[in-house]
Known about the structure:
Strand order of the largest sheet: 11-17-14-15-16-13-12
Strand content: 25-35%
Number of strands: 19
Amino acid sequence: MKQxxxxxxxxxxxxxxxxxxxxxxxxxxxxxxLDKGGATLVTGYGSVNATTGEITxxxxxxxxxxxxxxxxxxxxxxxxxxxxxxSSLFDIVRNxxxxxxxxxxxxxxxxxxxxxxxxxxxxxxxxxxxTLVDSDLKNYADDYWxxxxxxxINPATGVKQTRDITDFVQSTGTIxxxxxxxxTPDSTYTFEAKRGFARKIESAFEEMLIDVRSKGFRxxxxxxxxxxxxxxxxxxxxxICRDFIVSPDDKWxxxxxxxxxxxxxxxxxxxxxxDKDESGNVSDSEKNQELGNVRLRR
Length: 298
């Protein structure tokens, strides 16, 4: 899906190269940014994440003054001595839809999905009032556990403390929690970290925006992202439940189909406040724009 940059703001464009079905890390990257007509706006160099391979380029606000679709960025990068070329498109918009759903919204509807979340168990190396450190966690990328939950267990008493994970730093294997431990763990404690569903919510959101676009509505022209909340919850739960399926007729299969049907029903009933002329406001003639029938993706 195309990236959106906000009008008049510095924004970041990105790609991740893949070789042999895996992210590849480039040794260098150059970029050329073109306007809608194909004229060069600016040239520069991208930054390469040595862990994930993601290449990013920060486009200065001087080049985002004009709203429009299909600006182009041409990427040239080198991997293991071979030069590769790739192009991507982006839009400059007045408004960007935000994701109106968090893990708690999903758990409020289907609390047992956390039982199936990806998890890691280990022994605490050290801890402070609101952190936990385990060197074995260094195998996971920065922010990998963000939005999840971590429980520490006192081996002497069996008492468990559970907290929300607000940050994870790969280089030190450090988890930061949202509120201080009642009792700070020591190196005798075990712990269990469970990953949150932020990435699944993001994937569901991207799929839903494709459904929006398929009806001819540019997502950037929809001013109220809250309208998307309920269908997004259904779409995310459908995707999560589908990941948990073991057999065709098990509980998760039935839930996935049910949530997909709920998503389709909710999505078709959305009435957007739609800023067709990109003025930043919804005029009387633009109000209550219905999506109508649209082929929904699974």
